[in-house]
Amino acid sequence: MASLREIKTRINSTKKTSQITKAMEMTSAAKWNRAVVNAKAFVPYMNKIQEVTASIAIGSGGVNHPMLTHRPVKKTGYIVMTSDSGLAGAFNSNVLRRVSQTIKERHKSNDEFAIIAIGRVARDFFAKREMNVILETIGIPAQPNFADIQDITRATVGMFADGTFDELYIYYSHYLSAISQEVLEKKLLPLSDLTASDKLISYTFEPSAEEILEVLLPQYAESLIYGALLDSKASEHAARMTAMRNATDNAKELINHYTLVFNRARQAAITQEITEIVGGAAALE
Amino acid sequence: MKTIKVSIVTPDGPVYESDVEMVSTKATSGDLGISPGHMPLVAPLEITSVRLKKDGKTEFVAVSGGFLEVRPDQVTILAQSAELASDIDVERAVKAKERAEQRMKDHHAEHTDFRRAELALQRAINRLAVSERRM
After folding, report:
1. Which residue of B67, B73, B77, B112 is the best one to mutate when testing the A interface, meaning the one whose CB has the most A CBs within 10 A?
2. Span A247-271, mean pLDDT?
3. With A273 labelled, which of A9, A59, A211, B89 sits at a CA distance of 20 to 30 A?
4. What is the pLDDT of residue A62?
5. Which residues fall within 8 angstroms of residue B78, CB to CB, at 6 or more apart?
6. What one-character DSSP code corresponds to residue A187?
């Protein structure tokens, strides 16, 4: 059995760790709250832009736009969203596993796909495996603004427009609740899931439907990416909060166990001392 | 007086929501004024101000990267960013303006950064103008 001092050191270090995980749990909880609020604030914009885009794209009939038309796929783009830091349970590894499996199934060589990595974990993962990362961004704040990621969304949509890749998928962790998130794969471009809502309104277009789509579609695609980011942030903080809560609980359990061991060892030492004294006294008689 | 419901929404959340008598703004194809009962319309907006007339007073909102959608019962403005005149951070806009001007001096006119700086300058000027309500 370990010595008393060793057990004591272990109890102390576990206590310190549990303080850290507890603090991390609380900061994540605060961030998670705000992330959920942000994601909610985005919903009206998303619904509206979807509605308008759908009614224009469908309502105006024979409008052709490169972002709406399927073309033969030579190269596929993948946007992968992870966090910058770890300690979020299986949050990052779930996304990365899903992406690497899909890529392995769909592609034979590195030239058939390109990766846009958002978050340090994704970037390091793909860079280490020498997979084709064409764009990366790290250090996105916990409460991102649209302006924070506009550079990357614009560049990504631009790459589709100039033919760097012919279709674009996004992988991110979708927030279901504080304790469950699921990895989602969504096809972003070409835009395909435009379904008109209740009733179509026949708009007048000023100047013309084509010119409006020219501006609206990239904005719509950018909004989809931003929406996924907000979703992913909410998942990240929820996942980290849960992971840290588990860590704190485990630490508490360990501390209880070690305290028991410590007390037992102390008692054993005392008993042994008494036995020795009694034995010594008996020998003198 | 007849009113129409106006909402201005951005990716960072709704900015304005109210019933107004008239909306006036500048679309890429020219100045627009929307009164209740306007026909359905979609138009992209310049980096500009939106003036909302209500009870004899006029409110100003700075928008950039926006769209105007008019329905029989509602006007919606979708913008990448939008701020009420009272919410504009003047100091930040002044700094952004100086930064953009500096950048435009540093780059050639064909450079993409030049175009970006130009847009940033437009946004900053627009914000400043709206904050002083002199549009």
Report:
1. B67
2. 95
3. A9
4. 58
5. A45, A48, A49, A52, A219, B9, B10, B66, B67, B69
6. E
CB spacing of B42 vs A41 below 8 angstroms: no
d(CA A143, CA A32): 10
A157: chain B residues, CB-CB within 8 Å: none
Strand partners, A184: A172
Q: Give the DSSP H or E segment for B77.
A: strand B74-84
Can you tell me the mean pLDDT for A136-155?
86
For the segment B90-120, what is each residue's pLDDT rounded down to a tens digit? 888 888 888 888 888 877 766 777 777 888 8
Nearest CA distance, A4 vs chain B (angstrom) = 57
Nearest to B78 among A42, A52, A211 (CB): A52
pLDDT surpassing 80 at residue A242 = yes
Question: Are A181 and A90 in contact, with CB atoms under 8 Å apart?
Answer: no
User: Nearest C-alpha of chain B: how many angstroms from A56?
Assistant: 9
pLDDT at position A195, please?
A: 65
Of A203, A207, A223, nearest to B11 by CB-CB distance is A223
Cβ of A204 within 8 Å of Cβ of B39? The answer is yes
pLDDT for A60 equals 61
* Contact by Cβ (8 Å): A124, A86: no
Q: Which two tokens stand for residue B101?
A: 């001007």
Q: Which two tokens stand for residue A67?
A: 């972002």
User: How sure is the predictor about A95, in pLDDT bands with cuts at 50, 70 and 90?
Assistant: very high
In our burial notation (b when 16+ CB lie closer than 10 A, e otherwise), range A162-197 reads: eebbbbbbbbbbebeebeebebbebebbbbeebebe
**Signed CA dihedral, A152, A225, A184, A235: sign only:** positive
pLDDT surpasses 70 at A199: no
Nearest to B62 by CA among B31, B19, B7, B25: B25
Q: Which residue of B has its CA nearest to A225?
A: B11
Structure confidence at residue A65 as a pLDDT band (50, 70, 90): confident
Chain A residues near residue B70 by CB distance under 8 angstroms: 203
B67/A202 CB distance under 8 A: no
pTM of the entire predicted model: 0.84
- Residue A200: list chain B partners with CB under 8 A: none
For residue B81, what are the contacts with CB-CB under 8 A and spacing of at least 6? A146, A147, B10, B12, B63, B64, B65, B123
The pLDDT confidence band at residue B134, using thresholds 50, 70 and 90, is: low
Q: Which residues of A touch B71 (CB under 8 A)?
A: 201
